Amino acid sequence: MYGPGDVRVEERDDPKIVEPTDAILRISATCVCGSDLWAWRGINRLTEPTPFGHEYCGIVEEIGSEVTSIKVGEFVIGSFFASDNTCPHCRAGYQTSCQHRALMSGCQAEAVRVPLADGTLVATPEVPPKELIPSLLTLSDVAGTGWFAAAAANVQPGMTVAVVGDGAVGLLGVLAAAQLGAERILAMSRHEPRQKLAREYGATEIVTERGDEGVARIKDLTDGIGADAVLECVGTDESMTQAIRSTRPGGFVGFVGVPHGVNVPGELLFSSHVGLLGGPAPVRRFLPDLIDRVWTGKIDPGKVFDLTLPLEQIADGYRAMDDRRAIKAFVLP
Ligand SMILES: [Zn+2]
């Protein structure tokens, strides 16, 4: 990424083992994240050309001398943050706050170095058939992030859940809420193809209104009470406020949209009786369970990919997502 609207595919040196805890992966598939678009749009400024991409899965090509749990030739998935999976924060299930965490980058590539391989990577039971790779790839970030939104919002069987945001994370938040037993799922979306996928993933009602009207609609649909759990998957001031105001007293908001300009007033926090938990999703916590759900056909999060491109054309993926012509671009090195 050179700057706004300027993504180039260039020949770079092959990644090498640096620390004895590293692994080198041959990437099977990668993708473009909604959060990558902040730099594409020039909202996040880059000071120099930067290798991009933090979603990855692939075959282990080489391991450092201290790596014990991952073998060469295995198909593995890891989080967008590398983590040791042993420190107090990891043990509490917050691997994205790991005391030794390292943000992954440069995964939109043919190969990548993964630090802390033992803690970060989880292998599938065997090398997967090609058709499972899109769904497995989503577990690296987007599906795990949707899952964390639902877990953080304390979704329980029988609950009424509202999902703010119809990007890939929001849609996979719908899927997570359904898997966790929500009885009603109110998906907030104005885009027809996304509404369709939301319904496939388990949304029972679609709310097209936003802001004050969106809050009023959620209240209408819940006898004036509000949703038991709300998933905030956008990250704007409006979406965060809307999420809090749509939640019933005693309910929780799980917020995973990377905030841009969010300023929640203290009075709203105080008066709402709503619990907030969010942040960069500890997808490593969910990997073993989600790999199993994909492997056994219980979930198919890979449906969020509606555009497939070779790595050489990845800039088209950024463009299509920025224009909202695509939900999410699947990229093959
Ligand atoms: Zn840790």
CATH topology heading of the largest domain: Quinone Oxidoreductase, Chain A, domain 1
CATH superfamily heading of the largest domain: Medium-chain alcohol dehydrogenases, catalytic domain
The bound ligands are:
zinc ion
β-strand percent reads 15-25%
Shape: globular
Mean pLDDT: 97
Please state the second-level CATH architecture of the largest domain: Alpha-Beta Complex
Helix-strand layout with pairing:
Blueprint: E1 23-31, H1 37-40, E2 56-63, E3 75-78, E4 81-82, H2 88-91, E5 102-103, E6 111-114, H3 117-120, E7 121-123, H4 133-138, H5 142-152, E8 160-164, H6 168-179, E9 184-188, H7 192-200, E10 205-207, H8 211-221, E11 227-232, H9 237-245, E12 247-255, H10 266-272, E13 275-278, H11 283-295, E14 307-310, H12 314-322, E15 329-332
Parallel strand pairs: 8-9, 8-11, 9-10, 11-12, 12-13, 14-15
Antiparallel strand pairs: 1-2, 1-6, 1-15, 2-3, 3-7, 4-5
The protein binds zinc ion.
Residues 83-84, 86-87, 89-90, 98-100 line the site of zinc ion.
Describe this structure in words.
The protein is α/β, with parallel strands linked by helices and 333 residues long. The model has no long low-confidence stretch (mean pLDDT 97). The radius of gyration is 19 Å and the shape is globular. Strands 1, 2, 3, 6, 7, 14 and 15 form a seven-stranded mixed beta sheet that branches. Strands 10-9-8-11-12-13 form a six-stranded parallel beta sheet, sandwiched between helices. A two-stranded antiparallel sheet has the order 4-5. It is built from twelve helices and 15 strands. Helix 8 (211-221) runs parallel beside helix 9 (237-245). It folds into two domains: 23-141 and 282-332, Quinone Oxidoreductase, Chain A, domain 1 (Alpha-Beta Complex), CATH 3.90.180.10; 143-278, NAD(P)-binding Rossmann-like Domain (Rossmann fold, 3-Layer(aba) Sandwich). Zinc ion (ZN) binds at residues 83-84, 86-87, 89-90, 98-100.
